[in-house]
Design a protein that fits this description.
about 260 residues; alpha/beta; Rossmann fold; seven-stranded parallel sheet; two-stranded parallel ribbon; SDR_fam; 3-oxoacyl-[acyl-carrier-protein] reductase (NADPH) activity; Short-chain dehydrogenase
């Protein structure tokens, strides 16, 4: 499908439910043609019919399981070859229940494949295409657990810390090349991810849970403001700025020719 929209074509992973489904709706309303990627083809087809009718945009459905390398390579190739794609939303992701010591290693490997490997390969393909064209946007969905890993299990937090770090590094690499990069760090969001991962979210206080539409609208507001990192629930952006400043204050002392005096 060649996009006919002046906005271009938005490729959205995990587009069939939750955060991805809301993003799809909002991007269609903004005039993007859509390339919807998820495992549940029936759900995608149902959404596609409605989106075409309501927003008069082109919508293509691609069934893919991004825990499988062959499917990742298929989507990656589309990103590299389709010059009409102007936005990548790396949204697909899963969580895992339990501590590292008792977790199912195969489940963790599948999560790392989806949350880390697929995100990296697709972001790399988009970065190549978009920087060559001098335009485009890459949005990666991370999580606030990247900042407070002690509050959740080790592996999921680590995958989202990776997404945050990847996004920050990628933004530096693409600086001046016309490509906008954003990481979105939601807190607890009301989606199906909890049930799918076997986590009981009933015990989470209601004041900590944000509805997906509100989260996505805040994330898109941050995108419009050109934010690199968007934390939808953070009241004062100065707190994030102070965090970044403290991190960079460490920089001059992070690599030196001799160890600190306290280690001698």
């Amino acid at each position: 499908m060649n996009s006919i929209s002046p906005k271009g074509l938005a490729l959205v992973t995990g587009a069939s439910s939750g955060i991805g489904a809301v993003y799809v709706e909002r991007l269609a309303a903004r005039g993007y043609d859509l390339l919807l990627v998820a495992r549940d083809e029936q759900r995608l087809q149902t959404a596609a019919i409605r989106l075409r009718a309501e927003h008069k945009v082109q919508v293509e459905v691609l069934k893919a399981d991004l825990t499988l390398k062959a499917d990742v390579l298929r989507i990656e190739q589309r990103l590299r070859s389709d010059s009409s794609i102007s936005l990548l939303l790396n949204n697909a992701g899963i969580a895992a229940d339990g501590s590292l010591a008792v977790a199912d290693a195969d489940q963790l490997e599948a999560m790392i494949q989806l949350n880390v490997v697929a995100v990296t390969r697709l972001a790399a393909a988009a970065a190549t295409s978009f920087s060559a064209a001098g335009r485009g946007a890459i949005i990666n969905i991370a999580s606030v657990v990247a900042l407070i890993p002690e509050r959740f299990n080790a592996t999921y937090s680590a995958t989202k810390a990776y997404v945050l770090s990847l996004t920050q590094s990628l933004a530096a690499e693409l600086d001046g090349k016309g490509v906008q990069v954003q990481a979105v760090l939601p807190g607890v969001t009301r989606t199906e991810i909890w049930e799918r991962s076997g986590i009981d979210a009933q015990g989470i206080p209601a004041e900590l849970i944000m509805d997906a539409p509100e989260m996505v609208d805040a994330a898109l507001a941050g995108f419009d403001q050109g934010e690199l990192i968007t934390i939808p629930s953070l009241p004062d952006s100065a707190d994030w700025d102070a965090f970044v400043a403290a991190r960079f204050a460490l920089a001059p002392n992070l690599s030196k020719s001799s160890a600190a005096a306290r280690y001698k």
